[in-house]
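Appendix B.2, paired examples.
Example (i):
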Amino acid sequence: MSDYPFPPTLRLLRWTVHGTFAILLVIALAGVAGKGRPALVLGGVLLGVLYAAGIVIEGRLPHFGGTTHLRLGRVWLVLTTAGWAALALAAPQFVWLAFPLFFAHLHLLPLAVALPGVAALTVAAVLAAAWHEGRLTAALVVGPTIGAAVATLMAMIYKTLHAESEERRLLIDDLVRTRGKLLQAEGDAVRLAERERLAREIHDTLAQGMSSIILLLRAARRDLADDLPAAERRITEAADAAKENLEEARNFVRALAPPALQQASLAAALRRISDSAVAGTPVRARFEISGTPAPLPADYDATLLRIAQGALGNVSRHSGAGHAGVTLTYLDDVVMLDVYDDGRGFDPGNATGFGLRAMRERVSALGGSLTVESAPGEGTAVVATLPLPPREPAS
């Protein structure tokens, strides 16, 4: 059942009204049962079932406060009021059920309609009580009138609190959206800065080297007809420049790769960080490989390593776990990285940190997916799945 979008104070007030109806109905049923009137007992039970059905249906509506909610609520209000009127005319024990119905009218109807409705209920309650009493007394008038006044005042307070609660909810939603935009803008700024840095590096190294090679080859072509030794020198210089540029490119690629992967395989790097990431903590980590290892592209290695580092960092800092595990699984068409722990867990739906978002962006960039399974007190599992690139057929 979906919860009402109200703070605890308003929910307590709502359930106080429902509880009042239930108590008054039980008292009325006990009274008519003691007088041997089973038909009225059945009618009272049916009225209680109708009232409870309205509460259940209201809680299950997907859009609380929408058009469907109001239409069904008003139909329910008409049926409940009619049922109360019939029972109130049949037995005086049901007259006081008008008090919680005051709140229902004030809640489901516009104020311009609800106030006359409350007045009509009050008059009906007074007349029904006088009908059973055989005379109209001041007490019979004062009781329902005071109840109607109190209900109207409480309903006005309720509406004011609800309006403030809705305004606060909209403000919180706006703040959450703004925070999301700020996180996105921050991520875009980081990517733009990295892109600019890479552009500068390429311009100052690879592009300049390529330009030098082109100029040397043009000069050699010019000298081929008139000065063959000079042309040979130019070609030699171009070859040397190409070698230097190739070495520069390799250094550039190595600078982009994680240091843990420069001198080791992905499996070895994962095994090493599984130990180092939880060093100095009570967590005991274990690394396993499942399936037949296969060579992966450099960006796959870097992505899986970064996700393992981030997930293990969360384990060591936040989980309070005793054990953690890292499993690298090779399947026919995908490679999977599973990082799990037996710590305190959390609610992934309320996670607002940048770490999980960064992991998802890394995996999404390679066409994969990231799954986070956790619950308070049940540990956490982070599973990254990447599709394997097509393998070249063996020659």
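Example (ii):
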Amino acid sequence: MTLIKSISGIRGTIGGATGDNLTPIDAVKFAAAYGAWLKNDRNKETYRVVVGRDARISGAMIQELVMNTLIGMGIHVIDLGLSTTPTVEIAVPMEHADGGIILTASHNPKQWNALKLLNSKGEFLNGVEGEKILAYAENEDFLFAEVDDLGKITVNDAYIDLHIDEVLELDLVDVDAIKAAKFKVVVDGVNSTGGIAIPRLLDRLGVIPVELYCEPNGHFPHNPEPLKEHLGDICKLVVKEKADFGIVVDPDVDRLAFIDETGEMFGEEYTLVACADYVLSETKGNTVSNLSSSRALRDITRKHGGTYQASAVGEVNVVQLMKDTNAVIGGEGNGGIIYPASHYGRDSLVGTALFLTHLAKGNMTVSELKASYPQYYMSKQKIQLTPDLDVDALLAAMAKKYAHEDISTIDGVKIDFEHHWVHLRKSNTEPIIRIYTEAGSQEEATRVADAMIQDIKEVAGL
């Protein structure tokens, strides 16, 4: 069982011993730490926090603990109930709230849950803010409200529909074109809140949804990470239903993957590529993704006359670089679309609407769209090291060895060769180096990764 504390929140498995898992006591402690930080940071008379959750079995329990802790601190709560991560993100500024908490462990299995923490803009906290909250939790530096000053809970279950309204009003979402295309789409909502939000969005767009695992009961029918090896059922159903394509989201609906009309994966990396291709064709500008994302986004951006830049891994890092470079779209290669015209957060509803518009205007199939892009393939491996090995020194040695290549050291070591790249990142929890590679074929990506592993062993003297 596990409890992981980080600047982005607290994540852990349900049950077990306090301090080692996400128990009710841990949930209360970290909700109180967030409340303490909020009150000290904002320093005002009244405070409001938006709270929503995905459909995990533990979600209702954790949400009640979190909300009642906040009202015990004199903070008013807007309860969205079953929601999505991007829905909570847009609700925070719409409610003029001081922050937000999303109860979701994203793509982790059902025994996990987490508190993800937002600022008053509805964006994830930065490192400085996260460290302050961890310090409040460590010191248990909390001050609770007296009886006449307790907060109140206001229930508002309209925000998924309000979120959809916002998506449909985006300038680059062509509702008429989508309706005219008469798409039929299979949706795998992994029995979480995507099963509520995505079919509802499609219905508003005149798309016929075929629902698969869209009952928000928290019993995930397969591993909830939207990877090829977990998605056999929807791949078969797309073909059986003669659908135009399939949509897969993770439990909190911030990762988006597509299945083409033949039942083949479009590729999570290409979700952002396709949406960016459409946005850049209509709006000139720059793009951002993280260092472990596909080179295809760089190629598409340059084709449209824009500039591409890569950030350190992590949504907060992507968002900051997008702001710094005035990027018109960005995100992560795991299917996370960040479109600033909507908000600075990964949003599968926005991504779905942009993708549908792209398809409708291009009058092509999903497989034809994929074939139009530069074709890259990834390998993701890891190397186990001895606990006494200095991983930072090892990565520095690898950077020095390849100093004649295009090197980035903002997040591990990224080596850009002419026809492929390698990204080496250390684990924060165990003596492991993760090796990500991308090349023009799967065989080449694997070969490059294997060669880099041997290189690391030689440098480390293993």
